[in-house]
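Predict structure. Chain length: 236.
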Amino acid sequence: MVKYNKVLVKLSGESLTGTGRHGIEPAALMQYAGEIKSASDLGVNVGLVIGGGNIFRGLKGVDKGFDRIKGDYMGMMATVINGLAMQSALESLGVDCRLLTAIRMEPVAQGYSKQLVRESFQKGEVVIFAAGTGNPFFTTDTAAALRAVEMGAELLIKGTRVDGVYSADPEKDPDAIKYDEITFQEAYSKGLKIMDLTAFTICSENDLDMVVFDVNKTGNLKKIILGEKIGTFVKN
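Prediction complete.
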């Protein structure tokens, strides 16, 4: 029996690179598509936000040939590329899904609206949210928190390369301590880099809890939805 009937899953763009440094590795893409399918097969409404860092990261300052705003828009376009790739992968697995973008770009995808999200969930479709919030200066973490609240998600699930939230980077500090459970306020006061402050605020003000987990371990997403204690639970 599932514990959560409606969830928003946030993946980094870098997760799609697999063993590479840039772009999309087909094996990694299909692995994550399989994880999303396992959640959808439970009858759960799944929203998905994927970052764009594997293709382009917004640049700050004009010294590199880009101003911040143009760089951020380029990053938003990168999330659309990742969204299209994930949509294709899910459909190849027999999963019905809809790609919605915060910046209108028919015929690539439909523009975001809450009504379309509602219609998709009624049909049992996975909904992929691309192009961030549609505005510069906001990260895909913020977009994930915003879309999670708008769709009425019961939980925001953030996939990372490590198995939860630590006191320091466990890949650099062997003495880093893992938190099984922590509040948003505690995470903020400790300076833990889970999500940006805007995303934190959206979650906190809307009583939206979050789980941070190792996305590379097959079956973790399904276990979370079924109520198992995986990763770190971040609560209000």
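Summary: The chain has a mean pLDDT of 93.
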